[in-house]
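Reviewers asked in the last cycle whether our approach scales beyond single polypeptides. To address this, we selected a multi-component target totalling 924 residues and predicted its structure end to end. The input consisted of the following lines:
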Amino acid sequence: MSTVINATQQYARDNLGRFQSELMDFLAIPSVSTESEHAPDMARAADWLADQLISVGAENVRVVPTAGHPVVYGEWLGAGPDARTILVYGHYDVVPADQADGWETNPFDPVERDGFLYARGASDDKGQLFTHVKALESYLRSSGSAPVNMKFFFEGEEELASPNLAPFLNENLDLLAADVCVISDTSMPTLEEPAILHSLRGMTYLEIHVTGPHDDLHSGFWGGAVHNPALALAEILSQLHNPDHSIAVPGFYDDVVALTDAERNEIEKTAISDEQALQSTGVPALWGEADFTIKERVTARPTLEINGIGSGWTGVGPKTIIPASAMAKVSCRLVGNQDPHKVFDLIDAYVTSIAPPSVSVRCELITTGEPALFSFDLPEMRAGVRAYEQGWGVTPMFTRGGGSIPVVADIARLMGIPVVMMGFGLDDDGLHGANERFGIENYKRGIATAIAFMDEISRLES
Amino acid sequence: MSTVINATQQYARDNLGRFQSELMDFLAIPSVSTESEHAPDMARAADWLADQLISVGAENVRVVPTAGHPVVYGEWLGAGPDARTILVYGHYDVVPADQADGWETNPFDPVERDGFLYARGASDDKGQLFTHVKALESYLRSSGSAPVNMKFFFEGEEELASPNLAPFLNENLDLLAADVCVISDTSMPTLEEPAILHSLRGMTYLEIHVTGPHDDLHSGFWGGAVHNPALALAEILSQLHNPDHSIAVPGFYDDVVALTDAERNEIEKTAISDEQALQSTGVPALWGEADFTIKERVTARPTLEINGIGSGWTGVGPKTIIPASAMAKVSCRLVGNQDPHKVFDLIDAYVTSIAPPSVSVRCELITTGEPALFSFDLPEMRAGVRAYEQGWGVTPMFTRGGGSIPVVADIARLMGIPVVMMGFGLDDDGLHGANERFGIENYKRGIATAIAFMDEISRLES
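The resulting structure, written as C-alpha cells, was:
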C-alpha cells in the first residue's frame, strides 16, 4: 500500500497547479445563497461541482432538488462492499461580498497574491471541500483505485443555517450510509498548529415576554401601584445566574458530560490568557465560572446569554410611561449531552416558578440545535491525527468549537457515525469578511491530508 | 359687597350665551404649538386673546415674545395697591388633532352637542382659562370695579413642556408680583365632585448606560467569559427596589414630608379600589408599598419607574450576540420636599456602588422637575373651598396629582406664593384624545367659582 499512497501523493503534488486553476474557476461563480438574484449562479455552481465529481471518476452523480438550493451528490464505491466508506460533507454556497466593503480585488474574480488565493468562498468552504474531491482524483488517476469508498454531499444552504439539510439526510439515509463523516470547514491559528474539532455546542434560543397593563400607562398616574414589566423582566433575568456566575435554572447541568483530565489538558494547549481575552473583547474585567478556564468557558461549558432586551421608550429624551410589556431574547450554548428541548422546558418551568403574580410571563422557544461531542479516543479520530501527521506534517490538537454547526449533530444523531472535523483553513482567512483567502500551502497540505485520511481509514480494524 | 357679587354673578349668567360664542371663536383657532406649520395660528391666537383681555377691561396688555411662542399678559389693577392681587395662569396652545383620529366633527370647528362644546382645547385649557377672563369682565361690566387686582399670563408652550416659562418668570417677577396664583387646568370625576389640587409630584429622569465589550460579540465565541451588559443592567435594575417594593436607593426618602392623618383622610375620600385599579390598568395583580393605599401610592408617594430598556437584538428570530451595551430610561416621581438633583446624585452614587467591575456603568441626568406641595390649611386654599361652595354649589375635595406641572413648582419657588389649582373640567373630557369637550355647565359654574374666588380672596385678613 505504501507504493500506492506515495504515487497518489506524488500525483497531487504534480497537479497542484491545475487543481488551483480548477478551484479558481469554482470560486468565480458567485454562489451567494442568501440573495435571490444569485439563484442562477447557485444552479450553475451545483452543475459545475457535479461535473467536477464526474470528471474525477465519481459515479451516480446528481443534483438533488430541495425546498431551497440543491444538494450535489456523488460517490465512488469501487473499493467494494467490504471496504470502509467515508462521507464528505461541504457547502458550495457563500455569503455576500461587495468589493466596496474593503476588498482589494473583485471577490468573484479570484487572484493569487503572496501565496494565497483571494476570493469569496476560498476558505469557506469551496477550497476546503475541494481537497477531498482532489484526493479521490489523485487516487483514481494515479493507481486506478482507492482504498475506501467515498460519498460526497455538498449543500447550498449552509449560510442560510441549512433549513433543508435534516430533511435531506432523513430521506437519504441509505444513499449516504457510511462509516465516518469528514468535514473540512474549520481553521487553525497557524500552519503549524492544525486542529481537529471534536466538540460543538448546541443551542436553545428563546424569548421571555412579560406583559402587565393592557397599554402603556402614564407613570404619573399609575407609577408605584402596578408592577413595571421592564422591572419584572429585570428581576427575572437577574435570577437566571447564581452569584458564582453558574446558571441558576434547576436541572440545567444534569446532562452535562464532565470534562476528563485528558480533555482539560487538551483544552489547555490552546488556552486563552486573561490578557488576550481582555484585549480581544475590550471588557474591563472578565466574568464567568471561576472553576473553569477562559477557554473551557467559551468552548466546553454551557452558557446562558441575553441576546437582547426591549421595552418602552428608548429614543431621545424623556417619555414618562410604564411600558405595557417587556421582552428578552435569551440563548443557551449547550454541550454534550444536553437536550435543547429539555433545556427549554427547564428554563420555562423555572421562569414560571419565579414569575411574580403581578405580571404575566411567557417563554417562547425560537430555535434549537443539538450539541455534538466525539471522544478523541475514537479510532476514526486517531486516524485523523495520523492523517495530519503524514499529510500536513504536524500532529494536530483536538479543539472544541464554541459555536454550532447543526449538520454535525444531525449526522451524528441521524446516521450514528462519528464526524471528524479536519479544518484546513487559517483563523485569519477572513471568513464572511473582506479579502477572504485560502493559502496555497493550506490547499496543498489539505489535499495531502485528505489522501492520508482515506488511507488511514482503510487501515482501521473492523 | 354681597350686592356687588350678586350683580356680578347675575351678569355672568345673563351673558353665558355670548361667553360661549366667544369661547367658540377662540377654539376655532388651531393653535397647535407642537407643529411648526401652525406658527401663524399661534400668533393669531395670542393676538385674539390679547384683544379679549383689552375688551373685558384689562390694561397694559401685551404679547411678549419668548424664544418660542409668545406669552400673553394683561392686568387690571383698579382695586388699588392695598387690595390683594390674583395671578391667573393658563395656556392657549393645544396638542394636535386630526378628525381622522376618531373625531365626530372637525376638531377646530367647535360645535355644541348634548350640553358640551366639542373642540380641541375646549377643556385643555382654553375653556378653563377663559372662566377667569369672563369673571373679571362680569365684575367690571356689572359694577365698574372688582375687589381684587388681577394679572393674567397665558403661555403658548405648555404642551411643549414650557421650555421658556421659567426664564419668562425670572425676567418678569415684578410685573407678575401677586398674592396668590390660580390655575384652572385640571379636572374632577363628576360635576358634583369638584377638587382643588394641592400637590404635584416632581421628577428626576435619567438614563443608565452599561457598556461591556467594544463591539457586539459572538455568543458562541465569548459567552460565559464576559459579563453580558444586558444581564448586568438587569442585575442593577433589580436592585433599585426592596422586596417590599419600596425604593432601595439609600437616602431616597430622607426629604419626604410624611403624610398627616388629615391628608390621608382627604386622600381616602377619592380612594381607588383594587377592582377599579385592576380594571383601569389591566394588570393581573396590584403592586407597591403595602403600607400605603393605591391612591397614596399614585399621588402622594415618590416612585421609581423604568420607562424603557434597550440592548442588542430585539427583531424577529435569533441573533446570537452578546450586546456591547445596554441602557435603561428610569424616572422618579418626587414629592415635597425632595430635590430632583439630590435624588439624581443619590441614584448615581447607589448605581455606581452596586455596579460590577466587569462592565462600565454611567448614569446620565435627562431632566428634572420640582415637586409642589401646598398645605390645604393655607387661607388661600380655604378661600378656594368657599369659592366652590358658592360658585359651584359643592364643597371641593383636596387632591394630589400624580403627575407634574412644572409651572406650579416654578411659581411657588420663584415667586414664593401659593398656587390654587381649581380645576373646572371633567376627567373624561378627552384631553389629548379625540372629541375633546368642555361642559357648558362646567363653563357656567367655573365662571361663577372664579368670580367667587376673587371675592373670597379680597376678604382674607392681611
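The first strand of chain A starts at residue 59 and ends at 64. We regard this as preliminary and will revisit it once experimental data from Aim 1 are available.
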